[in-house]
């Protein structure tokens, strides 16, 4: 496991995980400040998973896709909203005089790199392993990713357990290893 960003700050989330000879990238975000901050470049990966469309999780996907071919596994709503936010990121950076490491051509490339999945489905990773997709209950299209092997590994991204008008809250997923987003951890609201 290697955090490329986001482990000790809000934003820039990017996690590389080695899983039974495969290497996965979970999210590849940015911190959209003035100036924006970006995670480290990832090593080569076998597959990239995008939990949801907030910029701290999806903001650097166009740069990633401009470097090498990637299939970005996510839901269709996440892909659509991510694409809109990435276009806005380029426009706002130009207006504010900051640079981002991608342009609208890269955003277009990313738009064609998404591989859609649905919550509640499972995809096999070879003969012995699989990944199951769970609704994260955070925003429409948000996902949690459960890697299934000798141990169950869960990457949540942002999640919500309370039903809202837009999405139902997520349900617990039994696992052996949990990667849990903790932006407001320990904070009373």
Question: Which helices and strands appear, and what pairs or packs with what?
Answer:
Elements (H helix, E strand, L loop, with lengths): L1 E4 L8 E6 L2 E7 L18 E3 L5 H4 L2 H7 L4 E3 L1 H21 L7 H8 L2 E3 L5 E4 L3 E7 L7 E6 L3 E4 L21 E3 L10
With strands numbered from the N-terminus, the spatial order across the biggest sheet is 1-2-3-4-5-6
| SS strand fraction | 25-35%
Counting helices, strands and paired strands, the structural category is alpha/beta
**What's the gyration radius in Å?**
16 Å
Largest sheet: 6 strands, mixed
Question: Poorly predicted ranges (pLDDT <50, ≥5 residues)?
Answer: none
Helix content: 10-25%
Q: Which series of helices and strands comes N to C?
A: EEEEHHEHHEEEEEE
Multimerization state: single chain
The total beta strand count reads: 11
Q: Given the C-alpha coordinates, what overall shape results?
A: globular
Rounded mean pLDDT score? 92
């Amino acid at each position: 496991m290697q955090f490329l960003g986001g482990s000790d700050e809000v934003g820039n989330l990017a996690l590389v995980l080695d899983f039974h000879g495969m290497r996965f990238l979970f999210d590849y975000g940015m911190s959209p400040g003035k100036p924006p901050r970006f995670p480290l470049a990832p090593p080569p990966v076998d597959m990239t998973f995008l939990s949801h469309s907030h910029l701290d999780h999806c903001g650097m996907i166009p740069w990633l896709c401009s470097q090498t071919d990637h299939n970005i596994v996510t839901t269709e709503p996440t892909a659509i909203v991510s694409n809109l936010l990435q276009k806005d990121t380029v426009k706002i950076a130009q207006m504010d005089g900051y640079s981002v490491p991608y342009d609208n051509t890269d955003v277009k490339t990313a738009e064609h790199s998404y591989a859609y999945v649905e919550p509640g489905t499972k995809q096999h990773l070879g003969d012995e392993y699989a990944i199951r997709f769970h609704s994260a209950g955070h925003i429409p299209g948000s996902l949690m990713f459960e890697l299934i092997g000798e141990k169950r590994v869960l990457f949540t991204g942002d999640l919500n357990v309370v039903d809202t008008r837009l999405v139902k809250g997520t349900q617990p997923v039994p696992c052996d290893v949990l990667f849990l987003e903790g932006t407001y951890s320990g904070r009373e609201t």
